[in-house]
Amino acid sequence: MKLLLFFLLGCFAIPVNGRDLKIFLLTGQSNSLGAVKGSPVSAEMLEKYKPERTMYWHENFGQKEGVFSGASQEWGMVVPAVPSYNGNLCMGPEYGFAAVLEKKGWFDDADVAIVKASRDGGDNGHWMRNGQAYRLLVGAVKNASSALKEKKYGKIEFAGLLYLQGESDSGDAVPAAAQRFKELLKHLAEDLKGWGDTAPLAKSCAVIGENANWGTKNVTDSLTGNTNGMLNGRDTEVDGKTTWQVMRSLAASSPALGYAPTRDLPKLTSGDSMGVHYDGCSQLVIGARFAYAMGHLKGKSVGSVRSGRYDLPLNAPDAWMDGKVPVKKVCVWDLASSILPSRIGEGVDSFKAFGIRVEDPSVNTVAIAGGASQRLVVGPGGIEVQQGRKLLIASALQLSGRQEWKLSGGSCVAVARPDVKGGMAALTGQADIFIMNTDASSSGKHAAVDFTEVGQGMSKKGRGVPFRGNWVIGPGVEVKGGLPGTGKAIFKKGSIYQGEVLTADRNVVLEGIATGV
């Protein structure tokens, strides 16, 4: 009996009903560290994407040990850091990563934590088993795990690695980058046993961040006006290879590895002249891309979200976060999406989107572009654009089905010429479209649809028959240019037509006279 009682008491001491804890490890050099210096993210965006539940432990370090003070002494929340040794603000991918995971709720069945130990420079040799970065990363994980002893978790799992490194690679470090990364995962899985479940690391569950290139300056995209990072720069090449090429090939070689592109993102504009460090807003985006890539690896439904793969056209599977070209799903642009214009693939006459939603990108203008003979086809999923954002369609546009266009105050959908040297833009297809301002009464800002560059009939280049259909324009929506095509339009009271705010409903017959463009 005494033996049975002792056994039962022992069972009650085990937190069998405790929540699980998933710990993601984050390491790398200065862009992982988040050396945003003179270009931090705005206070508004910090508040908007503020993580509220993700636990955070950081032990960042410098090229000389002991010079990067301010390491965690206890678990806290994800916040930017100001290391006392230089006073420069540090905020890496952890902020956007935690914010997106919380928003999506992919791991709500467990507590989620980030342990970060990043270095201000250095090639990948520092992450070899006896290197400074490896030793301090392992030490940080063990310190963080020891501090959990008062928390009762059913299971502690090291759920994956986030790795952003490579800008400083030179010599042997360049061709050895992939092999050293695989060894890093293997050694972490071995050396962290006893502190938690390392099975995900043993299975190479990791996201590789695209290393930046040196000497680049921000440029302004001529189509959208967005500021982006110039893609061409200096990558150290050894034996015909660069870290960028080696690591991208590694990520593509294994379904257990994710990839977070970065090079379309703006760099620092002050406090740094190296042309290699991303600004605070870019760090939010990198973190969001890490989150989507990790969610995909974990089998979560990441949806048809436009990825950061700026090098891929819309018709490519990897242009989308779930690795599938959308067919019957709405195409979404959000914080993680590429900020460069999305293009229809060469040799393809169209891209078919069930619907389009511009959710909350890091830029004001999202552009979809096509050649003079290409067209974007939008189906019954319609169009939705959040407040203050613009969807620019620089392609022939074909509409089909009954659609709702949900626009917020200050947002705009504009159809522009596919080629600035060409004639008018073309709108074809057959549809009934209801355009509404979803917050007209609360914000007081009108939304807009801009057809000033759209011709009213079929072009001489034969892009198709003129658009046929009916329009309903809701209150708080302004129509710029005439509504194209043939059919009827109902302008509701409070809509804006030909510069006039209508005080009553107005019906208009659309004649769709050919312009001969």
Structural summary, described in words:
The chain has 517 residues and is of the alpha/beta class. The protein folds into two domains: 19-297, Rossmann fold (3-Layer(aba) Sandwich); 317-511. The chain has helices spanning 2-13, 30-33, 43-48, 94-104, 132-146, 177-191, 199-202, 243-253, 280-297, 440-443; strands at 20-28, 55-58, 76-77, 110-116, 156-164, 206-209, 218-220, 227-229, 237-238, 241-242, 257-260, 330-333, 342-343, 350-358, 365-369, 375-385, 390-394, 396-407, 412-415, 427-437, 447-450, 468-473, 477-480, 486-491, 496-497, 500-501, 506-511. The strands form five sheets. An eight-stranded mixed sheet has the order 12-14-16-18-20-22-24-27, with no helix packed on it. It has an eight-stranded mixed sheet with strand order 13-15-17-19-21-23-25-26, with no helix packed on it. Strand 25 (496-497) and strand 26 form a beta hairpin. The N and C termini lie far apart (96 Å).
Provide a short characterization of the protein structure:
By secondary structure, this protein is of the alpha/beta class. The protein is built from ten helices and 27 strands. It has an eight-stranded mixed sheet with strand order 12-14-16-18-20-22-24-27, with no helix packed on it. An eight-stranded mixed sheet has the order 13-15-17-19-21-23-25-26, with no helix packed on it.
